[in-house]
């Protein structure tokens, strides 16, 4: 469905590349110029650094749909999916539906992460990696008490549009696909599973993000505020002293207008063994091994940060703030998994092979993220911090190599990532608005 006459469409379909924000914005303006009767582009807010938050609207009707891309700076698939969905909305012209596409919720973060956009290997992806600190992530920030202009823009947009459905398009490095929703997503099972199978994407049934959510069907999860709060406290997004209040988050905001939110996750690289629902074996040893890995790597990285800090002029840069979030998660997750600490809670839950694989995947991913962010932050200090930067280079190469050996990631073409997100969005819309 991607329109290859547009800059974003050419990037995704012809060049197997995520569109840049400039290409996506140019595509939005091109559609508005070609069909001013059905399309319009407007700036709905500005970022902390003054970058525009751009909204493309396609179609007219009493039912409004909101699609949010770029909630996380390190996740690029949503840009290509927006291109697919906008073209579909324009050509199909469903009466009664107005599609609103927020092209990027965090353009400041996207600017810092742009070096990873064209990567085709994990080492290249992490060479320029950036994901903001928890308190700097607009989609989640209201729930942890951060008052970001990007968050306010999204919340105001939800109140203005009163969308029947809000879609948040997410992706990850290595993994499979799954859906989280604020309303029961069970009816999505057939179209979601069929799309994933047709496009060669494994359905992920053991992602640690979903451990505290109700599973309506394989890979389809129902979100509730208290479950989200519990999960994010466990992973370091929240601290025990913060009033989590998940209902303040942007995911649950459409509920006050009778709407729902659907999060669609896709991987950049696929991996096998993510949907094995057979009971796990040697669980205690597995959990202890993963916890020990996190503690060891967290100790190494914390020591390197402490050694480099005297040479860093500004200890409050976005990169250093960002590095501290996964560093916090390393220590907290280790305690959550260790059977001799808080891991007894996990032992009382049904642990499938997929769930243990999901834990192992996080035990590789989180330290690599922390090392990549810390390396970028330390490099800024120049020669005085060169020993720490060199050590981080070595650790990142070694940990990426282990990550690849364990999960054997296979690149998923951008058009297929986009197609699956777009298929899932369209299926959810058809279920909610069969009359359209």
Number of strands: 10
Largest sheet: 10 strands, mixed
Q: How much of the polypeptide forms β-strand, as a percent range?
A: 5-15%
- Please give the share of residues in helix: 40-55%
Oligomer: single chain
Question: What characteristic shape results from the CA principal axes?
Answer: globular
Class based on secondary structure composition and strand pairing: alpha/beta
Global mean pLDDT = 93
Number of helices: 14
Task: Walk me through what this model shows.
With 436 residues, this protein is α/β, with parallel strands linked by helices. It is built from 14 helices and ten strands. Strands 1, 2, 3, 4, 5, 6, 7, 8, 9 and 10 form a ten-stranded mixed sheet that branches. It is globular. Residues 239-246 have low confidence and may be disordered.
């Amino acid at each position: 469905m991607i329109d290859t006459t547009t800059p974003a469409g050419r990037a995704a379909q012809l060049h197997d590349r995520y569109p840049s924000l400039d290409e996506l914005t140019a595509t939005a303006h091109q559609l508005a110029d070609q069909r001013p009767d059905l399309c319009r582009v407007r700036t709905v807010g500005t970022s902390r650094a003054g970058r525009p938050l751009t909204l493309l609207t396609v179609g007219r009707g009493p039912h409004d749909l909101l699609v949010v891309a770029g909630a996380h700076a390190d996740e690029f698939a949503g840009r290509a999916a927006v291109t697919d969905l906008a073209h579909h909305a324009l050509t199909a012209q469903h009466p009664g539906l107005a599609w609103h596409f927020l092209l990027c919720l965090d353009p400041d973060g996207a600017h810092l992460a742009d070096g990873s956009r064209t990567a085709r290997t994990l080492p290249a992806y992490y060479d320029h990696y950036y994901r903001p600190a928890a308190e700097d992530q607009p989609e989640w920030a209201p729930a942890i008490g951060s008052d970001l202009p990007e968050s306010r823009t999204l919340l105001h947009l939800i109140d203005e549009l009163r969308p029947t459905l809000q879609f948040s398009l997410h992706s990850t490095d290595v993994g499979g696909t799954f859906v989280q929703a604020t309303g029961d997503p069970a009816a999505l099972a057939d179209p979601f599973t069929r799309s994933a199978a047709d496009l060669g994407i494994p359905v992920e049934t053991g992602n640690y993000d979903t451990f505290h959510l109700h599973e309506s069907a394989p890979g389809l999860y129902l979100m509730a505020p208290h479950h989200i709060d519990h999960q994010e406290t466990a992973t370091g997004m929240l601290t025990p002293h913060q009033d989590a209040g998940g209902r303040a988050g942007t995911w649950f905001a459409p509920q006050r207008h009778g709407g729902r939110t659907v999060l669609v996750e896709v991987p950049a690289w696929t991996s096998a063994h993510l949907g094995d629902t057979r009971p796990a074996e040697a669980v205690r040893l597995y959990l202890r091994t993963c916890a020990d890995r996190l503690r060891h790597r967290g100790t190494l990285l914390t020591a390197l940060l402490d050694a480099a800090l005297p040479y860093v002029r500004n200890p409050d840069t976005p990169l250093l703030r960002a590095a501290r979030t996964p560093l916090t998660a390393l220590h907290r997750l280790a305690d959550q998994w260790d059977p001799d600490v808080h891991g007894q809670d996990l032992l009382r839950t049904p642990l499938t092979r997929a769930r243990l694989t999901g834990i192992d995947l996080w035990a590789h991913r989180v330290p690599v993220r922390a090392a990549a962010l810390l390396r970028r932050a330390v490099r800024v200090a120049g020669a005085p911090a060169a020993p720490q930067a060199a050590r981080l280079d070595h650790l990142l190469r070694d940990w990426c190599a282990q990550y690849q050996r364990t999960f054997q990631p296979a690149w998923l073409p951008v058009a297929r990532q986009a197609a699956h997100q777009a298929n899932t969005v369209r299926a959810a819309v058809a279920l909610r608005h069969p009359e359209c």
